[in-house]
């Protein structure tokens, strides 16, 4: 399942799921002569008994039977972490970063018959990989999210961008349709669309060979209902292309949108002009049965458990999430802080060659591919990186300006643990703190949050909404002891009780995200601090199999 709604009615799109051939390799040049394994796609190779901790390179292969001559393009929703794609032996695309989707280039005139799709995958940590390295979560290997193949006409709709607005008491939206001409000659096309009963005439445009043209329009929809957490109304925005005067559309693209506004004023966050308090979890997309390759049923299970705990929001720590999960958030009315892929970069890491470029690419892919999700109300960047240094500040500034340029409709933030030393509060709309009172320090959460408010106010964040973006402690599932010592489920519950009791009373706190939803696997050998027992971060309010710990009911009490 690529998405939770039909994205095309005219263009043919098919998922390529199931078993693919697989072979581990040692160097990129090595093309396997034979494939000894078969692995499921989507899937992580760690789920195969021989690759439980394999970090390295591997090749996936799939034979495809094409029935009639066509132009094809492949969609990859996530390959962890580096991919090179070959079609019949020719390279048609490459990509870095497990957590953002990408398309290959269009391959024209594919003849009917049997063809071969080969994907080189690498999950090793090396100098070139700045986002994926040994960290406090796990970088799995493989084609971890769905793969699709599209049959494209030479001129096609690349993507749609929809921004809803509420003007003079009426909902409407700005629409941008990006049209690409992959052919060899200039084309004249007509772009049309519709949303519920309302038609959208975007007129005729010329698209040069090899270029993409944005076509803009505005749609007024007096009869729609707004999207909200209580009633998450969604609508299909359908767009079509007509080429050479033909009355029949040659291509289409459907997006699912919602009408809502997000603002920050008076020290609060508003959705549709109403102040909201975000109550939710930091969630790693990780499960012992599937790694990072979630089937739909497990995505739903996570969602239902978070809702059962009373949450209205989720932070996608620390990378963009599976699109189907974001689709679910749209459907269930869960507010999302979506975050770029970055955790704990020291300044030298941020400054090292390639790091900023990889972040900028990730930001662009995240914003462009997830722009239309009404559930996403905040973009976040660079969790716990060097926001306390002048050089780091420049990099934060560049990334935040980039995102504002791509999307001015959502507030921006980043989560810091640099306390009064932070230098970037003035750059964002919301200030967010990762503090672990009662776990990494013995501080009192109530006193500490008041202090944090002052650090923000005095450091450029005066009057901005504030979020407690991480707090919690370890609780080992099943470790119960009336002594309530550190690591027991009892102490874990106590820590969350003290934190939540404090934060839910503070009028200046607009959100709280517990660290974390579920226990997650971490990379071994990350240094003394992160050498976590059982290679697991055990701060989940449910364990890795989603069994509730004692803390679950505490959270529920405060969130509900
Ligand atoms: C940090 C970090 C998380 C996690 C957490 C912890 O604040 O942002 O990814 O590592 O600490 O468990 O210590």
Automatic annotation (TrEMBL):
Assigned keywords, A-Z: Glycosidase, Hydrolase
Pfam families reported for this sequence: Glyco_hydro_2 (PF00703), Glyco_hydro_2_C (PF02836), Glyco_hydro_2_N (PF02837)
UniProt keyword Hydrolase, yes or no: yes
Major enzyme class: hydrolase
SUPFAM superfamilies membership: (Trans)glycosidases, beta-Galactosidase/glucuronidase domain, Galactose-binding domain-like
A GO MF term: hydrolase activity
Record flagged with keyword Glycosyltransferase: no
EC number of the protein: 3.2.1.31
InterPro entries: Beta-gal/glucu_dom_sf, Galactose-bd-like_sf, GH, Glyco_hydro_2, Glyco_hydro_2_cat, Glyco_hydro_2_CS, Glyco_hydro_2_N, Ig-like_fold
Glycoside hydrolase family 2 catalytic domain sequence ranges: 263-523
Ranges of residues in domain Glycosyl hydrolases family 2 sugar binding: 48-149
Sequence ranges assigned to domain Glycoside hydrolase family 2 immunoglobulin-like beta-sandwich in this UniProt record: 155-260
Family: Belongs to the glycosyl hydrolase 2 family.
Protein name: Beta-glucuronidase
């Amino acid at each position: 399942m690529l998405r939770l709604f039909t994205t095309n009615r005219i263009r043919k799109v098919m998922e390529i799921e199931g078993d693919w051939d697989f072979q581990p390799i040692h160097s990129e040049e090595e093309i396997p002569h034979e494939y000894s394994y078969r692995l499921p796609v989507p899937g992580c190779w760690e789920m195969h008994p021989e690759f439980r901790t394999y970090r390295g390179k591997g090749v996936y292969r799939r034979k495809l039977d094409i029935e009639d001559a066509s132009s094809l393009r492949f969609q990859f929703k996530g390959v962890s972490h580096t991919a090179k794609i070959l079609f019949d032996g020719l390279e048609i695309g490459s990509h870095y970063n497990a957590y953002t989707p990408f398309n290959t280039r269009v391959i024209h005139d594919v003849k009917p018959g049997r063809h071969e799709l080969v994907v080189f995958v690498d999950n090793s940590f090396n100098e070139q990989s700045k986002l994926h390295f040994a960290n406090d979560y796990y970088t799995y290997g493989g084609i971890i999210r769905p793969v699709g193949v599209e049959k494209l006409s030479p001129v096609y709709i690349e993507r749609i961008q929809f921004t809803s607005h509420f003007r003079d008491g009426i909902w409407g939206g700005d629409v941008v349709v990006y049209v690409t001409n992959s052919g060899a000659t200039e084309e004249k096309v007509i772009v049309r669309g519709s949303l519920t009963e309302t038609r959208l005439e975007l007129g005729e445009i010329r698209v040069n060979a090899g270029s993409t043209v944005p076509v803009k329009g505005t749609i007024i929809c007096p009869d729609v209902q707004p999207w909200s957490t209580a009633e998450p109304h969604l609508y299909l925005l359908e767009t079509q292309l007509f080429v050479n005067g033909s009355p029949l559309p040659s291509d289409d693209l459907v997006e699912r949108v919602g009408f809502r506004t997000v603002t920050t004023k008076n020290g609060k966050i508003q959705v549709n002009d109403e102040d909201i308090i975000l109550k939710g979890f930091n969630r790693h997309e990780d499960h012992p049965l599937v790694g990072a390759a979630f089937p739909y049923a497990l995505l739903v299970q996570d969602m239902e458990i978070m809702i059962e705990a009373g949450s209205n929001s989720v932070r996608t720590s620390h990378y963009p999430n599976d699109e189907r999960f974001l689709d679910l958030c749209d459907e269930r009315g869960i507010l999302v802080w979506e975050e770029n892929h970055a955790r704990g970069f020291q300044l030298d890491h941020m400054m090292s060659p390639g790091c900023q470029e990889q972040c900028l690419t990730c930001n662009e892919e995240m914003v462009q591919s997830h722009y239309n999700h009404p559930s996403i109300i905040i973009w976040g960047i660079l969790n716990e990186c060097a926001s306390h240094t002048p050089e780091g500040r420049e990099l934060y500034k560049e990334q935040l300006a980039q995102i504002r340029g791509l999307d001015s409709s959502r507030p921006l933030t980043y989560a810091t643990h640099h306390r009064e030393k932070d230098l970037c509060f003035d750059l964002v709309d919301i200030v967010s703190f990762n503090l672990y009172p009662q776990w990494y320090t013995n501080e009192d959460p109530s006193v500490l949050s008041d202090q944090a408010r002052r650090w923000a106010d005095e450091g450029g964040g005066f009057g901005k909404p504030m979020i407690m973006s991480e707090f919690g402690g370890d609780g080992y599932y099943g470790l119960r002891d009336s002594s309530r010592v550190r690591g027991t489920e009892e102490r874990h519950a106590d820590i969350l009780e003290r934190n939540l009791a404090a934060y839910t009373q503070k009028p200046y706190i607009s959100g709280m995200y517990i660290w974390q939803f579920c226990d997650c696997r971490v990379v071994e050998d990350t240094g003394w601090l992160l050498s976590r027992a059982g290679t697991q971060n055990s701060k989940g309010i449910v364990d890795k199999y989603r069994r509730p710990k004692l803390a679950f009911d505490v959270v529920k009490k405060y969130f509900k």
